[in-house]
Design a protein that fits this description.
This protein has 398 residues and is of the alpha/beta class. The protein has two domains: 3-73 and 206-394, Rossmann fold; 75-204, Rossmann fold (3-Layer(aba) Sandwich). Helix content is 42%, strand content 13%. The chain is built from 17 helices and eleven strands. The protein has helices at residues 29-34, 48-54, 75-94, 100-108, 124-135, 150-157, 170-184, 199-207, 209-219, 223-226, 238-250, 268-275, 301-310, 319-330, 347-357, 362-367, 387-394, and strands at residues 3-6, 44-46, 58-63, 116-120, 139-144, 162-165, 187-188, 229-233, 257-263, 313-317, 375-380. The strands form two sheets. A seven-stranded mixed beta sheet has the order 1-10-9-8-11-3-2, with helices on both faces. Helix 5 links the parallel strand 4 and strand 5 (139-144). The structure holds pyridoxal-5'-phosphate (PLP). The site of pyridoxal-5'-phosphate (PLP) has 21 residues, from helix 5 and helix 11.
Length: 398
Amino acid sequence: MCQFSFNPYCELHPDWETVSLNTFGSDDIFPFHKSLDVYQPTPLRSLGSLASAIGVGEILVKDESLRFGLKAFKALGASYAIHRFIKSRVEAETGRRLSIPEFLDTAGSGDCGSYTFCTATDGNHGRGVAWTARWLNQRAVIYMPRNSSQARIDGIRSEGAEVVVVDGTYDQAVTKAASDARRNGWVIISDTSYPGNMGIPSWIMAGYTTIFREIDDILGDQSPSAFDTVFIQVGVGALAAAAAWYYTVHRRNRRPRLISVEPLAADCLLESIRFGCGDTRTSRGDQDSMMAGLNCGTPSILAWEYVKRGMDFFMAIPDDYSRRAMRLFYHPCGDDPRLVSGESGAAGLAGLLALMESDKMSSAREQLDLGPRSSVLLINTEGDTDPVNFRNVVTTDA
Ligand SMILES: Cc1ncc(COP(=O)(O)O)c(C=O)c1O
């Protein structure tokens, strides 16, 4: 049974200057990503037949399964943050401010110091950290929760990183990574922020804005009218924070409605919105959703500042909606293109299905004005990062 809430803290024009550590406006984010050899903008697909079948006017999908050959968007954050970290170290030690080409030269010649980068992950962020560390000839140690799939562990090891599987949840892996990093002098590249760890998570969130910049580049002048509702799947809330910042700033006067989608088993934003009196709360779910990337029990406190003031609606769904969404992407309607979308990647479509179909949500659907005149933006945040489960899901009928 889905759970949901409108956001009583939502502001039409939030003043982000009041948030500490706002790095979203940094002007080197998109140029940094574009300077990488592997860079290609990921495509924006239109699924017109699926839109008609579901009862909305248009569905656009930004396909992040094709990002950097890593099957997920996450390396946008890890690469930008590690680059900022190394630049700040070089500047502190030598007084030199590296431009992007100078950073790439320095990193390429192995002249940027020697670090061990460490993080907790459900899979994709850890792979992004490991990939960046390998590119820069650095070491990476990645902590994963006990229910991690072998394919996701292998994906991280294939980037040359060490993987430590913790006997606990994602939240417990975060705690263990932080204490081991402190003891060993490693650098934490965490995508979630908590007291004492804010700077790097702020750069990671900022790195995700490249997704929204690319959408604007692809749509050009059409962008402001191309979609009116955006579904964002949420783990700790960093991607949702990037969307909230981006659209409240860049679409100030024509802001799309922003909808957060979480698994019921890890509904930390919904729990916070409903019961936190403005503060974060931990999900009461057991963090065992099939949507592994969203299995996070505690919001990032920095991301919370943005989602609390920028998102319109929060919902939590059972895994079955994600299974159906994976199948709908993989077995397209009419002339729609096929998309390979993993458990968390399909969560945005899963949220849309739940809103359009559930009787319990009919008044929310009306208030959100979701219907044949709506144009919806979804982000396919991952491809088949667990190929075995992916195959099982898309080859099963109901
Ligand atoms: C595929 C996928 N989608 C969405 C998310 C959610 O991102 P965030 O944790 O920033 O909310 C994650 C997080 O790891 C992910 O792996």
